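#data-curation
PF: Archiving a pair of folding outputs for the training set. Convention for this channel: one message per protein, sequence first, structure tokens after, nothing in between. First:
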Amino acid sequence: MTCSACTSAVEAAVSARPGVRRVAVSLLQNRAHVVFDPALAKVDDIIEAIEDAGFEAEIIPDSAVSQPKSQKTLSAQFRIGGMTCANCVNSVEGILKKLPGVQGAVVALATSLGEVEYVPSAISKDEIVQAIEDAGFEAAFLQSSEQDKILLGLVGLHTERDVEVLHDILKKVDGLRQFDVNTDLSEVEIVFDPEAVGLRSIVDTIEMGSNGRLKAHVQNPYTRGASNDAQEASKMLNLLRSSLFLSIPVFFIRMCPSIPFLRTLLSMHCGPFLMGDLLKWILVSIVQFVVGKRFYVAAYRALRHGSTNMDVLVVLGTTASYVYSVCALLYGAFTGYRPPVYFETSAMIITFVLFGKYLEVLAKGKTSDAIKKLVELVPSTALLVLKDKEGKHVGEREIDAMLVQPGDVLKVLPGSKVPADGVVVWGTSHVNESMITGESAPIPKEVSSVVIGGTINLHGSLHIQATKVGSGTVLSQIISLVETAQMSKAPIQKFADYVASIFVPIVITLSVVTFCVWFLCGWLGAYPNSWVAENSNCFVFSLMFAISVVVIACPCALGLATPTAVMVATGIGANHGVLVKGGDALERAQNVNYVVFDKTGTLTQGKAVVTTAKVFSGMDLGDFLTLVASAEASSEHPLAKAVLDYAFHFHFFGKLPSSKDGIEQRKDEVLSKWLLEAEDFSAVPGKGVQCSIDGKHVLVGNRTLVTENGVTIPPEAESFLVDLESNAKTGILVAYDGEFVGLMGITDPLKREAAVVVEGLKKLGVHPVMLTGDNWRTAEAVAKEVGIEDVRAGVMPAGKADVVRSLQKDGSVVAMVGDGINDSPALAAADVGMAIGGGTDIAIEAADYVLVRNNLEDVITAIDLSRKTFSRIRWNYFFAMAYNVVAIPIAAGALFPFTGLQMPPWLAGACMAFSSVSVVCSSLLLRRYRKPRLTTVLQITVE
């Protein structure tokens, strides 16, 4: 399954089977939960229904442990050249999806990339490349999700002897499964077992085995892609120069016959032909069939697969003009009557179209600047710290950053970039993490601090131990998210794809109708002869209108309207710490009606602290805290940690070393001696914990836990508890041996921006809602503090998704902002899930947006960016549609009877070329986006 349409198809197919009561399909988990009557349906029937719908299915055992798939699926990225409009994209996607073993394919026009999900045992990447090339496009493999395959570039691979040496070296490497040397590109593709041999070892072995003659380096797919973009632009520029060089003389011959010298020269006879006509024929033939060869090739590919595109229109228009001119020239040569020729029309059309395409290539390159900037954050080299067997520092070595392996210790000098995610093992410094988190203030780093690859070390030297490298780093995951978003299609694009698929046939029909109407009217004498230009005739007059209609129509603008805007927007979002997972998420966010906030860790800082402790029995406060800490010591709940820290500092404040390491070591030593032994410990979800200490039952939790166990809360304790809850604090009640002992007040401070963000959302017309498992009194106090009127308290984790669905019942679009594992069902259920970047991996996986900076202001940024993007997309569609609606009638001569305005075909070609460029440039205006300032949103004037 690849999208929500797939889940709907599976649900519909399974629901249609008799005996099926209920089916729920999860796209994220690739699972379907089916409730059925075994008397009416069998498991095999359900599998058959799913497979009939075009998907694969297998049973997951009752243990809920997924069995490995019989066929491993890979996701690979290919660069596809030669695509010019949405029809090309649809054609390539259609061809790929029909290939055996291909489970899904998405092609992006703006990036010239295709992402194919396939079963490698059924089809290889070379066969996929071959299929794309057979369809008439250019294709090259870039990268795949297979972790043990890599492409190495080689320096020094010149002769057959060098190739033999390389073969001998690689054959001896343990763990190297296979390799394929490409001598033309000086590359070797290797498949290896990363558990048996490291990539750096392979590179070192090649260099040492060849005595330094051969040097290997990892090919960066992004650098390769940028190189291809530059080659495409260079290729287009060369074609444009050639076309311009040949077309200018043709245009000059046409426009400057009044110069005596030229008139004499061009009027000379060369056989039956005039010198001027012969020169134009020769020059334009080169433009038409040599420079313009790419249009013929692309048009042939499209027509062979039953589709049409812009190249078909260009070929039809220029060929009609060229063929007519040749026929007219030959007719004049043999009859003596010389009708006008229009060679310059086809030459100028091709020149202007190439100029437009060149500008388009340059502009489309700008849309992916965000990816390029992110890739450039990764340093090219790293300084590896060499150690002997005893772990002593023996030296340093500069290596390619792509050869860093987990566990390597790397030296990071002041002013240099951190090469990989890791942990500081020596040194102290400050690191600028603004490029990743957006946080401008330098972050202090010391031993055990986590560092992120791509960030800049500012002051002292650091030794870091790499924990995540390659695709596992934070920066790589951000790049991957942005790439995935840029590959995705927004639902609004379906309309453009449909229009593009029928656009060219409609234009050709209009062109034929235009010709027939003008020709028949002229033949019947419906318009005066004065309308027809001198030395022309009714046929030529009508043909020029028809060619202009074909040439001026542009399906490319429609195809580029959405993907270019989505590309720019996702890149801009990444620069502002807002990662969007796809165009569909971007589209939904513009219409958000409700934003549901989880309380703990989202509206609050997620760091609970005990503010008060009060005993309502004869127990000493120290003994009370020891009792509570002993009960909570086995719990992993954040509140339990707050209780334990409070009790620990009460007993040992001022009695511990001042250094951080000393405190932690001493704390571990005293905990076992200080705490009482707790037996029969159990956590009661949503209520608290219970255990036995000294043979007596201990309860630590909320009011519900205590009262359910028959413990009476004294009136003065109840009054104190109500007062705590009214001040946005959570009360922890403690009972010992069936008697109420005391309670503690815990608070989780609000994030400083929470109240302002809530007010800002209201100004944007969005209704904020707070969701929490806390009691009503505490929840209402917190909500009052941040300005939220709609509160849902006492909600268990499983019920959060139900609250989201209840808000969606009237068709409202709901966004959910959360950070924890218990928020993931609600994030998945919401129309737009927003995970706070500091949250859990599960929450981030379930969300549509990731707010990297852990700042609530980015919720407003996400909604505002979505609205600005789709406002731009709507303008793009308006311009693209308006251009064709207005331009085609003008080209067809609708204004000619009233104004005498006739659009020459070469001018129509220029207009068509600039229409797609204008749409791309319109999308590029999004690069000027600035995140909304809260003072502006709240309409606050700052003096």
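PF: Second:
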Amino acid sequence: MVGGLCARRLARRSRSALIAALTVLLVQTLIVWNFSSLDSGEDRENGGSNVREKRDRVAGNKAAGSDYFQHGVHQRQHLPPPGRGTSRHIQQPDGYYSHRPKEKSRVDSNNENSVPKDFENIDNSNFGARSQPQRQSVGATSSKQQREHLQEKAHAQQQTWRDNSPSLGRSSNEVLPVGHQPLAVGNNASYPNGQGVAGVSRQQYRTSQAQQAQSQHRHQHPHRRQATAAPLEVTYDQPPKCEISGKEAISALSRAKSKECRQQIAEVYCRHKEGQLMPEKVTRYCPLEGKANVNVQWDEDSAESFPLKPVRIAFVLVVHGRASRQFHRLFKAIYHTSHYYYIHVDQRSNYLHRQVHALAAQYPNVRVTPWRMATIWGGASLLTMYLRSMADLLAMRDWSWDFFINLSAADYPIRTNNQLVAFLSKYRDMNFIKSHGRDNARFIRKQGLDRLFYECDTHMWRLGDRKIPEGISVDGGSDWFLLNRMFVEYVINSKDNLVTNMKRFYAYTLLPAESFFHTVLENSAHCESMVDNNLRITNWNRKLGCKCQYKHIVDWCGCSPNDFKPADFHRFQQTVRPTFFARKFEASVNQEIVNQLDAYLFGSFPQGTPALNSYWENVYDEPDGVASLSDTQLTYYHSFTRLGLARAAASLQGNPKDHSCRYFPMGHPVSVHLYFQSDQFQGYLVKHHATNLATSKLETMETWVAPKKNFKLTTPPSSTFSRLQFAEIGTEWDAKERMFRNFGGLMGPMDETVGMQKWSKGPNITVTVVWIDPTNVIAATYDILIDASAEFTHYRPPLNQPLRPGVWSVRILHHWSPVAEMNFLIAPLSHNKHQPIRQEDALKLHNGPAKNSYMEQSFHGLNPVLNIPVSLGYVEQAKRNAALTSLELEHWLDSLVGELWEAADVCAVGPTACPVMQACSKNPWSSLSPDPKSQLGKPRADGRIR
């Protein structure tokens, strides 16, 4: 009896000890997993974006999205598709999900890049007010063996989480597996005879789903899994001066690419940890207790009487990219001989830099910064660039200016120069800067001002928390402003406590240009000159513009404005508040709105002016070097030149003795332009060299290659299905502007393709999308639920690479009836690492995915249902093509490119022996033809050039 009682007590104690041990082990495991997640910067403070990334990888969907999700379709249970494995494709919305509730976005928010999530009460810090002790550390006290042990445990735990994650956090909006309609639509409508494809019953799928779910992605993307593995050992030239224990700092160190950047991160972290970096208290010099806000009004007639002493403006133009013609139009619109123009071109935009230098040589009041910076979104370098530009302007004794105005190439005036000068002359002592207009504590959280950031390797790394200095009011909003010279001189030259400490504080701040000038102005003796209006209209559509699209360059999420379209023109004519500029404009997205605004300000161009509806944008220029191109681009451009030469030879009407229009291609392309007409993409213009076979002389010509139509609806469209307007496959999908930035879809075997569909409004429907490779292998298939008001859907199927080269087809079906079909080309690469491809590389890139399997599951059973024949001949031919190189490869490539592109015309840049070839300057499509709206001229008597 007693022995039994003791045994039971001992058993209870053993169980308690076992439970306690398991609890400790679980806590340790969770801590280690949390450490392992740092490689991708995972934390909820970042809007849950990295949790979402892991979900995307688990679901086999990277950065997919759909407008349809913003309309509240409910989640339903769906059965897996046929095949060896199962894969649920979860289509994410255009925004991003967080575990925290969404915050309502205010459409009247004035903060240019406000973070669209509420990060309140999230504790993920390193130091400062919210600091918590950390279990892991990297630095002087961390041994190599300890780090390696932690990394091994972290990787194992991370993989366990991935393998079991399909049951976690499912989205309420899905791209469904093939052939499975929502249960509310109909249980058996998706399959012929109410069965699963190939006669497999739904119950069988349901039974196997749980068994297969854990292993479905274990082998699907091994190369992608490596990208999120535990970080490698962090190496330094010199060991850190402190123990680095903060989670964000460890994450930054593990992800930084260069040793110099890691060294700087460690140094900044240690200096901050020791209290040497941030000011604790800053002096406020403003005599006011609250925020000053001078109310100024716009008088439409104020420009009628020009001021006796007009102000002179220093425009600082901060430009990047390749849209030189749009920049020329902006410059023409704001130019006047009375003002000054200081232009900074991003360090990575060499083509635009050459164009800007040519422009500056024409005008004495235009200068280009002798230095260049690679400014990044949200980076501290942007504030540095502005401060350096201000210092330069103050040092130019021959430039006597009164106001500083910053503009980008995406800006355009909505009032004339005379109106702007009349207004600023009236308020010459004011500073125009737009505040966020929100609760200040909330703004600080959303903007990340209470976090420590550091910029290196063209990335903003978040290193932990920090305290806002005492004694001042932190403010911020838009980073576009108009500041008077007196305040600029104070910011640049003052050594007082406020300016000195704010420069220190904002050197380690995210989006510093959106807050530094606001905070200094509000706390300085100049505070009473603050006008809460930056005189701009910005096209905010936060539903589309807050996509966390900058996460590859900053450990944060933000928003950016949309482009204006013709429907927005009425907004420029409002007179409720003074406005003189608007943003954003992109001629490659829509040039018509710029034409309308230009005519509104300056009057229409004379009738018959050429190229008013044409737009050209450079994408390659010979001085940039072929290293600036991808192998896919280089492959296509070479093929385009050969298509142009074949067109020239065809003009000889088959005469074998006439060689006057026959050419041999020479060298790489000279330049490449995008060509648009009436805001429609018309193709590529490739300038290139070739040797004339009749004269053996080198000639230069330009070829226009236009895309063929490859999308077709069924004829006639189904009476029950008429919503689909257009569909396209491409890369570089811009969810904000709903367009592919890779115009024409130039794709190769290693590109990640996205399928897009455009819809009209109508009843809720479900469609099936089927991707078919050149050998008739069904690579992917999925269902999409389209909400009644959805406009666009897009999805990136997680296809194993390399994709098989050739012409692919995509079919869209409704209730298994064909609705539409489109083709797209995966081009075999003629170049690898910018050199002619070798056979061993061709075999690796052109043989399709391993085991001919694009996904874990096989869709072979769908071939008979969709009437897609399986042919061994296609497979054998594909294998032979994969081994092609040199001329044979070029012939195959050109035949494929010719199926989706055509040489619309060819022109001669200089002298030519071909009698039927016109000069490019006389061809309205050529990039060398006249373009008066973008061409610059000498100033007129009134000081303007427009």
